[in-house]
Amino acid sequence: MSGRLQYKSALVTGAGSGIGMEASILFAQEGASILLADINLVAIEKVAALISSRSPNVKAIALKTDVSKEADIRAAVDKAVAEFGRLDIMFNNAGIMHPEDDNALNTEERIWDLTMQINVKGVWWGCKYAILAMRNNATDESKGLHVGGSIINTASFVGTMGAATPQIAYTSSKGAVLAMTRELAMVHAREGVRVNSISPGPLKTPLLMEFLNTPEKKERRMTHLPMGRFGEAVEIAKAALFLATDESSYMTGTDLKVDGGLTSAYVTAL
Ligand code: NAD
Question: What highest taxon heads this organism's lineage (predicted)?
Answer without folding.
Answer: Eukaryota
